[in-house]
Amino acid sequence: MQKGDFVYIKYIGKIKESGEIFDLTDEEIAKKEGIYNPEFKYGEIPIIVGAGFVIKGLDEELEKMNVGEKRIVEILPEKAFGERRDDLIKLIPESEFKKQNIEPKVGEFININGISGRIVSISGGRVKVDFNHPLAGKTLVYEIEITKQVTDLKEKIYCILKYFSNLDEATAKVNIENENVEIEIKDIKIASRLKEEIVKNIFTWIKEIKKVKFSEVFEKK
Amino acid sequence: MQKGDFVYIKYIGKIKESGEIFDLTDEEIAKKEGIYNPEFKYGEIPIIVGAGFVIKGLDEELEKMNVGEKRIVEILPEKAFGERRDDLIKLIPESEFKKQNIEPKVGEFININGISGRIVSISGGRVKVDFNHPLAGKTLVYEIEITKQVTDLKEKIYCILKYFSNLDEATAKVNIENENVEIEIKDIKIASRLKEEIVKNIFTWIKEIKKVKFSEVFEKK
Fold first, then answer.
1. How far from the centroid of its chain's Cα atoms is residue A101's Cα?
2. What is the mean pLDDT of residues A63-86?
3. Is the torsion defined by CA of B99, B101, B103, B107 positive or negative?
4. Residue A10 has pLDDT above 90, yes or no
5. Are strands B115-123 and B172-177 parallel, antiparallel or unpaired?
6. pLDDT at position B112, please?
7. How large is the average pLDDT for residues B7-18?
8. Comparing C-alpha atoms, which of B60, B48, B73, B67 is closest to residue B146?
9. Cα A187 from chain centroid (whole Å)
10. What is the mean pLDDT of residues A139-166?
11. Average model confidence (pLDDT) for chain A?
12. How many inter-chain contacts (A to B, CB under 8 Å) are there?
């Protein structure tokens, strides 16, 4: 494949060391492995090769693959979730938690300024919190398959809509006319941050489009 | 006028007791009175009579007036900003302010959970804060004029857009086709809460419209 190609992929991601599956696209396998999450939307995922929709190691591997090909690839931390950093382990006075009426417990995750950290230990009035990504420092093994390539303009728009907001043919109408695309949604709210991501990616990866109209339809009840 | 009529109004609002002007629509008078605020957009205001776009006392008076008429009306607190309530005066320990690194000062306004309060006094480690609306308990005197009535469908849409989001012909395109209206904006963001208010008011006060399409246009740079 080439950078900028629109493809659908399937994968199973495991931690090499433990063999633990941390992410996968196949619902059946999830059920079989006993890790099925009913709130998660399984299925092939649309991505743009080389656009950072997946971790670097996967993006690089995809560029070497063809449609229909399946590979097993080992990805080192620096091309996955980075190395573990000691400076991301912080000591926080237990009193800080008490002030906010939080009882710190080892193993629990807390969120400080939007960054999630795991409580590692509590002793001497201090709480040790690890703000490293849970997959930092881990070598990953991915079973990855490119199931199809998308070349149709309208389908490319849907790839981007699906990736960022899980919108599909049932929830969003896409109309293309010359260099303009209109995306129409109803009874759905898209955060403006996501709307901007969608528009940015359309302009970056779909050269034919110069204007995007994002419409929300409201009907009188 | 009747409830539901779309009109443009001009006004000067004064506190009866002190004669102080607290709100007005005319830029020239604001300058003459030495209360001009360069950040405020002066000019006639579009409202819907009886829809709560203005205080109750004004809404009731407008219903008795005709287009072009000018009146001076006295409005008692219960039809303006309500009576003052003693239970909205709170004593807050000074330590609460210190915890958040705020130095309380008499006369300053603070915001707690989105409600604004004025610091009235500080003594014995306690800060007295008045959360009453600054105009609560005040009898108001309004000089009010209905400058014109709007009957055109498209202009009615603009009244609502202008009232809620200061949008006008230059910043929003309005297209009406049968029972449908499309509102198109570019390089402007409207909070979804305001978007919903606009749509709700269109459906409530413009019976002819059954569908609203709110579009944001993005162009490639």
1. 33
2. 97
3. negative
4. yes
5. unpaired
6. 81
7. 97
8. B67
9. 24
10. 97
11. 94
12. 52
Across the interface, whether the CB atoms of A214 and B218 are under 8 A apart is answered yes
Nearest-Cα distance to chain B for A114, in Å, is 20
Q: How far is it, in rounded angstroms, from Cα B36 to Cα B33? A: 8
Query: Residue ranges of the alpha helices (H) in chain A?
Result: 27-32, 56-64, 94-99, 153-165, 192-205
Structural tokens at position A87: 């400076």
Strand ranges, E, within chain A: 6-15, 21-24, 45-48, 70-75, 89-93, 109-112, 115-123, 126-130, 140-150, 172-177, 180-186, 211-219
For the whole model, what pTM was predicted?
Answer: 0.81
Contact A213 B215 (CB under 8 A): yes
- B211/A217 CB distance under 8 A: yes
Place of tokens 């709007």: B150
- Kindly list the residues from chain B whose CB atom is less than 8 angstroms away from the CB atom of residue A195: 216
> Structure tokens of B197?
């208010």
* Six token digits for residue B68: 């072009």
State the complex-level ipTM: 0.80
Residue A111: predicted pLDDT? 86
Residue carrying structure tokens 């906010």: A100
Looking at the complex, does the CB of residue B209 fall below 8 Å from at least one CB of chain A? yes
Which residues in chain B are contacts of A184 at CB distance < 8 A? 213
- The DSSP secondary-structure symbol of B78 reads G
User: A56 and chain B: CB distance < 8 Å anywhere?
Assistant: no
Structure tokens given for A2? 């080439």
Nearest by CB to residue B213, choosing from A99, A199, A217, is: A217
Give the long-range contacts of residues B10-13, CB within 8 A, separation 24 or more.
B10/B44, B10/B45, B10/B144, B10/B145, B10/B147, B11/B45, B11/B58, B11/B142, B11/B143, B11/B144, B11/B145, B12/B142, B12/B143, B13/B140, B13/B141, B13/B142
- Record: contact A220-B209, CB cut-off 8 A: yes
Any alpha helices (H) in chain B, and if so which ranges?
27-32, 56-64, 94-99, 153-165, 192-205
- Give residue B33's pLDDT band: very low, low, confident or very high (50, 70, 90): very high
Q: Give the C-alpha separation, B72 to B140, whole Å.
A: 10
Cβ neighbours, 10 Å, residue B165: 19
Distance CA B6, CA A217 (A): 24
Task: Please list the residues that pair with B181 across neighbouring strands.
Answer: B176, B212
